[in-house]
Design goal:
Layout lengths: L4 E10 L6 E2 L3 E3 L7 E4 L2 E3 L3 E2 L4 E12 L12 E6 L2 E2 L32 E2 L15 E3 L4 E7 L10 E2 L3 E11 L1 H9 L4 H8 L2 E8 L2 E2 L3 E2 L2 E8 L18 E10 L10 E2 L15 E4 L3 E11 L4 E8 L6 E4 L24 E9 L2 E9 L15 E10 L2
Antiparallel strand pairs: 1-4, 1-14, 2-13, 3-12, 4-5, 6-12, 7-10, 7-11, 7-14, 8-9, 8-12, 15-18, 16-17, 19-27, 20-26, 21-26, 22-25, 22-27, 23-24, 23-26
Helix pairs in contact: 1-2
């Protein structure tokens, strides 16, 4: 039985070697009795459920497997947390190339809580000393946690049959009882968190200053306080009932669904079916109330790839990078082969790609020879982004 507050790990297991699945499938724990979660001696074929007097945060996940008979990662369309039956949103859409862990990773006491070689981090938990602007996924009393695994169709390069085991290790911070929640917040090393908790408030606060686009934008302030009760927990950043102003994590990717036209830019947008599925749309409209900041990138280039542009309608100087197979500045966290050295997370951009009061998108150019679309036995290019979406009041 969970007591007090602290951290724990839940293992969501999908033994596809026992009960397999097929291309295009969407699987969750509980869809079959063999798909289970485990914690110590507990083992259930259903979503994990919080007690009525408990709050928790999903700090991050490890994706272990699946690996096919050729030693390659099994293609995954999307892994996404599901809270109380609700998809957390398409801003978090993780595939096999974005998941560094192939096996259990070592503990690391540094921020946030695991070695980046092993874990996809959403953010350091508020309960564990994280800032009030943390983007760990919030779960309130009696909420449930599950994981949806979606596989690509064969037409999009997926495997026809999936029979390789896959495990998701979910790293959870929790507090059992409102007094334990308050104790954790009051002892926070973050001054505004501790001060607010002393007054029975939970405060979300961040100042985003000097956001340079075509010139220096005035500082943007996200500041919101709510009563320090469990009923308000899921209204915080990345909670099921999150209210504005808020910060959302973005961890997603795109793949080309059409061949490129030689020497012409391809904009990675849903219009014209240039990307495979809607969540892969890499075009954003930023306003005075909503803006975007992307800090890390990963690219799997095609042999005919030449250039990647992070376009910004407010700037005469978009960020442009040559991105050829032998000169790739943005290595993905995990390449396809198990034999590859594991990478320590995505590549940090030399300057964050920030969008405010304008339209931005990602565009790709070939080297004069068309890049084919992803298909059965054919690979195109892939671009992944890590960042944040900020919504003001």
């Amino acid at each position: 039985m969970v007591k007090g507050f602290g951290r724990m790990t839940l293992n969501f297991k999908y033994p596809f070697s026992v009960v397999g699945t097929t291309a295009g499938a969407s699987i969750q724990c509980g869809d079959d009795p063999v798909y289970v979660w485990e914690h110590g001696l507990e083992r259930y074929s259903k979503p994990w459920e919080l007690a009525p007097d408990m709050v928790a945060e999903l700090e991050g996940i490890e994706v272990i497997g699946g690996v096919d008979a050729f030693g390659r990662r099994v293609p995954i369309k999307r892994i996404v947390p599901v809270i109380s039956g609700n998809d957390i949103g398409e801003n978090i859409s993780i595939n096999e190339h974005m998941a560094p862990a192939l096996r259990d990773g070592p503990n690391d006491p540094s921020y946030p809580f695991r070695d980046r070689l092993a874990c996809i981090n959403f953010g350091k938990a508020l309960l564990m000393g994280g800032g009030a602007n943390t983007t760990s996924i919030k779960m309130g009393p009696s909420d449930t946690l599950n994981f949806k695994i979606e596989f690509p169709t064969v037409a999009h390069g997926g495997d026809a049959v999936i029979n390789s085991d896959l495990e998701i290790k979910a790293h959870i911070a929790f507090a059992k009882g409102e007094d334990q929640m308050l104790n954790a917040l009051r002892s926070s090393p973050v001054a505004e968190v501790a001060a607010a908790a002393a007054n029975n408030q939970i405060r979300q606060y961040e100042v985003l200053g000097d956001l340079e686009i075509s010139d220096v934008i005035a500082p943007q302030v996200i500041d919101r306080s709510v009563p320090a009760t469990m009923d308000w927990w899921s209204s915080l950043n990345m909670g099921l009932n999150a209210d504005d102003p808020q910060i959302k994590r973005i961890i997603t990717y795109t793949k080309n669904n059409q061949p490129t036209t030689p020497n012409q830019e391809m904009e990675m947008v849903r219009d014209g079916q240039y990307v495979q599925v809607p969540f892969q749309n890499f075009r954003w409209t930023a306003t005075e109330k909503k803006f975007y900041r992307f800090t890390h990138v990963g690219v799997i280039p095609h042999g005919n790839m030449f250039q990647v542009k992070f376009d910004n309608g407010n700037s005469r100087y978009p960020m442009i990078f040559n991105c050829e197979p032998n000169d790739n500045p943005f290595v993905m966290p995990q390449q396809s082969l198990v034999a590859d050295i594991r990478r320590g997370g995505p590549t940090e951009l030399p300057r964050a790609y920030t969008l405010m009061k304008g339209i931005g998108s990602v565009k790709v150019t070939d080297n004069g020879v068309s890049i084919p679309a992803w298909a059965a036995g054919v690979r195109g290019f892939e671009i992944a982004l890590w960042g944040y979406e900020y919504t003001l009041q």
